[in-house]
């Protein structure tokens, strides 16, 4: 094993671990002798973390996410338990938390980690640079915070609910906070859970029009999936920004990603490399999207969408 102990911050939403929290446990098990999950403000999620691979778990009671408070808690736990590495998921809160914890600990911080291996007894973390056009390998020494991209690792297929592990409740005193959350309101907008979707049907500029884009939506709906889009599609106003996939959109990791009329620019590809299976439809046989797709269909994506919709309807009839 490349390291003795890894601490994994398992973020929760509505008291349940988010996917990347559980995925990181799989990664941690591969490189560490001991994996400790940290759950803040949602003690019930500790048992789930153990069932998904943690050897033991630490819970801390706290109100909803606040960077200063959560960072203070994690820093105290790292000081007390002295893990060699801390894993934090690259969610909006995770990116915020991981960087702050690393700074407070004067530890190294590797962001957007998508791979991990051992070499000469050391851990090597892989992270994309320049919008995913190159990958860098970072050899880890000393305490390091790794901020890990969702979908880069797979969570255990089935939780082992019989697995035993110690759950320790810790209390961390928080000094006066400079910022306090006085109220939080749910944004009234379309809710698009691209990050957790198992099937995504995405359209690019090649779809041609808002009218044609309805076909992308229809296929996604028939397959029980979610609609994705490239940036030009957002700029055209065919769908809302919440659907954007890529470097400045969402990073996704579905089982199936159907890319219609998408060229495969690095800024889009960097958001979809965690997909299990990519089907690309493009009229240009040299389109870069074909380099990363499992199945490539050269042709008009509007025609292909109509055929797929018809066939799925027949199968579902
Ligand atoms: C800082 C920065 C951040 C960015 N972030 C993102 C991001 O998060 N997400 C993102 O997507 N982009 C992002 N971009 C934009 C990115 O560089 C590309 O411009 C964009 O991904 C291209 O989108 P597209 O594939 O839809 O369009 P295009 O590149 O124009 O490709 C359209 C494709 O459709 C094909 N086509 C045309 N007609 C048909 C048809 N009838 N049937 C089948 N195929 C057809 C064409 O052959 C072509 O390959 C970013 C750019 C920058 C500079």
UniProtKB/TrEMBL annotation:
Cofactor detail note: Binds 1 FAD per dimer.
Record keyword Nucleotide-binding present: no
Signal peptide: none
GO molecular function, one term: electron transfer activity
A Pfam family that the UniProt record links to this protein: ETF_alpha
Keywords: FAD, Flavoprotein
Residue ranges of the TM segments: none
InterPro entries named in the record: DHS-like_NAD/FAD-binding_dom, ETF_a/b_N, ETF_a/FixB, ETF_alpha_N, ETF_asu_C, Rossmann-like_a/b/a_fold
GO biological process, one term: fatty acid beta-oxidation using acyl-CoA dehydrogenase
Cofactor(s) essential for the protein: FAD
Residues annotated as binding FAD: 205, 230-231, 244-248, 261-268, 282
Matches recorded under SUPFAM superfamilies: Adenine nucleotide alpha hydrolases-like (SSF52402), DHS-like NAD/FAD-binding domain (SSF52467)
Electron transfer flavoprotein alpha/beta-subunit N-terminal domain: residues covered: 6-181
Family label: Belongs to the ETF alpha-subunit/FixB family.
Protein name according to UniProt: Electron transfer flavoprotein alpha subunit apoprotein
Lineage of the organism: Bacteria, Bacillati, Bacillota, Clostridia, Lachnospirales
């Amino acid at each position: 094993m490349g390291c003795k102990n890894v601490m994994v911050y398992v973020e929760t939403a509505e008291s349940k671990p988010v996917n990347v929290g559980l995925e990181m446990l799989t990664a941690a098990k591969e490189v560490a002798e001991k994996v400790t999950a940290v759950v803040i403000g949602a003690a019930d999620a500790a048992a789930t973390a153990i069932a998904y691979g943690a050897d033991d778990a630490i819970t801390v009671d706290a109100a909803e996410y606040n960077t200063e408070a959560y960072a203070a808690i994690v820093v105290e736990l790292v000081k007390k338990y002295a893990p060699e590495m801390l894993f934090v998921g690259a969610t909006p809160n995770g990116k915020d938390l991981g960087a702050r914890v690393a700074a407070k600990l004067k530890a190294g911080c590797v962001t957007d980690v998508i791979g991990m291996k051992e070499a000469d007894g050391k851990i090597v973390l892989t992270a994309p640079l320049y919008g995913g056009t190159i990958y860098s390998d970072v050899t880890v020494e000393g305490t390091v915070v790794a901020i890990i991209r969702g979908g880069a690792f797979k969570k255990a297929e089935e939780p082992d609910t019989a697995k035993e592990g110690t759950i320790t409740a810790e209390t961390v005193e928080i000094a006066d906070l400079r910022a306090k959350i006085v109220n939080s309101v749910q944004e009234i907008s379309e809710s698009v859970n691209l990050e957790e979707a198992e099937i995504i049907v995405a359209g690019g500029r090649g779809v041609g029009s808002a009218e044609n884009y309805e076909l992308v939506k229809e296929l996604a709906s028939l397959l029980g999936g979610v609609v994705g889009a490239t940036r030009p599609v957002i700029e055209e106003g065919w769908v809302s920004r919440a659907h954007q996939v890529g470097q400045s959109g969402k990073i996704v990791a579905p089982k199936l990603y159907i890319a219609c009329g998408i060229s495969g620019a690095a800024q889009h590809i960097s958001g979809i490399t965690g997909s299990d299976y990519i089907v690309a439809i493009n009229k240009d046989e040299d389109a870069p999207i074909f380099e990363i797709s499992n199945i490539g269909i050269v042709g008009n994506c509007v025609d292909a969408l109509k055929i797929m919709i018809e066939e799925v309807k027949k199968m579902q009839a």
